[in-house]
Amino acid sequence: MPDDAPPETAPHETAPHDNDGTPVLHDRAAIVETCTRSAWSTDRRDWSAFREVFADEVDLDYTSLNGGEPLHLPRQSIVDGWRTVLSGLDATQHLVGNHLVTVDGDTAECTASVLATHILANDGGEPIWTVGGHYRYRLARTHEGWRISGLRLTVDWTSGNRDIMLLAVQNQPEHVREWKHENGRA
To answer: Cα separation of 85 and 137, whole Å?
Structure first.
């Protein structure tokens, strides 16, 4: 090596750091992993793993799909709600990609494209409903790692039979159909 060559440094020493010295690349990878795990565990119906990606309280906004108002929910309500609806379907596949991450200390935002396919064989029409759009995740650093504290879906397009979502809930036992969000309202 020539005498004027700069000394070699380890990659972690040259990577950008957050204000607390944590490498940004490590945070970004952990955030993308958390967001991806939410989709992966949903499609596998692994409700314990799905629960673990969320903070204790979550702002959930699906108004671009369902109308209504954004909700502030305990994480178990999100798990119970998604379990109720998705367990009535034959299959789902939620693909998230093109993650754009911004880290600011112990908080972060991640925007990702989503393609969500829902499948239910039925006598009333097509068996597939697909939603295309993007998620905006808000995350918080906790002692357990990055957790989703906010989730907003923006729908760009849909295709197929949206009614399969209603059929999925109707196919559930009575005690499941009566599930309601715990949002501090009657």
So the answer is: 21
Distance from C-alpha of 139 to C-alpha of 149, rounded to nearest angstrom: 5
Q: Is the pLDDT of residue 5 over 70?
A: no
User: What is the reported pTM?
Assistant: 0.81
Residues 9-47 as b or e (16 or more Cβ within 10 Å = b): eeeeeeeeebeeeebeeebbebbbebbbbbbbbbbeeeb
Which is it for strands 54-61 and 145-160: parallel, antiparallel or unpaired? parallel
Q: How far apart are CA 38 and CA 149, in angstroms?
A: 12
pLDDT tens digit string along 88-113?
999 999 999 999 999 999 999 999 99
CB atoms within 10 A of CB 166: 14
Beta partners for residue 108, in sequence order: 103, 139
The DSSP string of the chain is: --TTSPPP--HHHHS-B-TTS-BHHHHHHHHHHHHHHHHHHHHTT-HHHHHHTEEEEEEEE-HHHH-S--EEEEHHHHHHHHHHHHTTSSEEEEEEEEEEEEEETTEEEEEEEEEEEEE---SSS-SEEEEEEEEEEEEEEETTEEEEEEEEEEEEEEEE-THHHHHHHHTS-HHHHT----SS--
